[in-house]
Amino acid sequence: MKPGKTGITRIIHACHYSWLGLKAAWRHEAAFRQEVVVALLLIPLAFLVGQTAVQIAVMAMSVLLVILIELINSAIEAVVDRFGGEHHKLSGRAKDIGSAAVAVAILNLLIVWGVILFKNYLL
């Protein structure tokens, strides 16, 4: 185990760094801001259209998954950009794969919401 903060001090510092990460994503990533706005609309909507606690939870989690993957994608892009502006096939691949992960998370959201809406309101 590496030396450093432990216990509640570690948790407090981890929360601080997480807050800094969220602030940086908000400040520098337009896609993150857009997805947060969509989340602020969709998560309350899940409570209106979901008919069970499980449906509401799955709908909300599918929205939060998009934000989670966007944060990871933004971190990948920041690291790649940090190590040089010249085009390298591995840098491009890393960015493309991160983008694909976001697309899969959005597809997951669409499937989850579509299935639940279909089941609740069209069957």
TrEMBL record:
InterPro entries on file: DAGK, DAGK_prok, DAGK_sf
Residues annotated as transmembrane: 30-50, 97-118
Annotated catalysed reactions: a 1,2-diacyl-sn-glycerol + ATP = a 1,2-diacyl-sn-glycero-3-phosphate + ADP + H(+)
Cofactor names: Mg(2+)
Major subcellular location class: membrane
Compartments in which it is found: Cell inner membrane
Pfam families: DAGK_prokar
Membrane topology: Multi-pass membrane protein
Keyword Iron: no
Keywords recorded for this protein, A-Z: ATP-binding, Cell inner membrane, Cell membrane, Kinase, Lipid biosynthesis, Lipid metabolism, Magnesium, Membrane, Metal-binding, Nucleotide-binding, Phospholipid biosynthesis, Phospholipid metabolism, Transferase, Transmembrane, Transmembrane helix
Signal peptide: none
PROSITE patterns per the UniProt record, alphabetical: DAGK_PROKAR
Family (UniProt): Belongs to the bacterial diacylglycerol kinase family.
Chain's role: Catalyzes the ATP-dependent phosphorylation of sn-l,2-diacylglycerol (DAG) to phosphatidic acid. Involved in the recycling of diacylglycerol produced as a by-product during membrane-derived oligosaccharide (MDO) biosynthesis.
Name this polypeptide is given: Diacylglycerol kinase
